[in-house]
Amino acid sequence: MPLLSELFDDVFVINLRESDDRWRHAEAVLSSIGVARPTRVDAVDGRSLGEEGLKRLQDGGTIAKDISGFRARRRLPEIGCAASHVAALREVVERRLPRALIFEDDVDLPCAPAEWTARMKRAVEGLPESWQLWYLYRDLDVEHRVRRLSESTVIPWNPKGTSAYAVTLAGAELLLGAVLPVGVPIDRAFVGAIRSSNIEVYASSPALFSAGALPSVINRRTAPGGNMRAGSHLHPEYQSRWRAAWSGNPPPHSWGLRLQVGVSRARSRLRRRLRRWLHARRGG
Asked: How many Cα atoms sit within 13 Å of 120 on the Cβ side?
């Protein structure tokens, strides 16, 4: 079974420079399946853009002037995420890479490496040679509209999630031509491109990768040092109390705050478990 580095001309991992732990996580995951030296793509930290940074992205044709399509409470982080994926696709095009893999840095394997190798072999054998965009992971889809081609390949309908996908040079060019300037979250932009540009798209099923349990960094809403994104909508004075409670040092007489933090954590755990259950139930 050829290694991924033999099947693809480069393997990209989108990662914030400040997130060395996540980079090491991605390196370890990919090393376990034969990718020794992935290429690091500097992620755009949307939280740090400011008005000038946003204007540069808009003037450069990366982000649309009208940004109302991004969710209001997560607008800048979603813009940063979109700009990061655009940067990876542009590198594919600029370097004229025939085939490339693009990962977010929380990617994980859905099974043991030995089982993954067998799954990958079946997926490659079932993938049409004319593919241009290949989803190796989908978060959600409209399953009754998904069309199965083989035991390992489907034609997705409305794939969500950009944790792991592959593109050909032609696919990257078509994607960029269709999504730029980006005015909606990047996974929605990809779906729009699929519908409008006749990109030949497939998805592995069962999935070859999964989104790991690490909390989102590119798409988090708090500033560096605050991984308690659930409280980022609060008034600044209350945020400090929330952060203290989240870290296990709540201020005195704050049973209500402790309860809120507990509920928030429980909801996060439930979402992760539900996501894993859905993937297991539909076989990826």
From this structure: 18
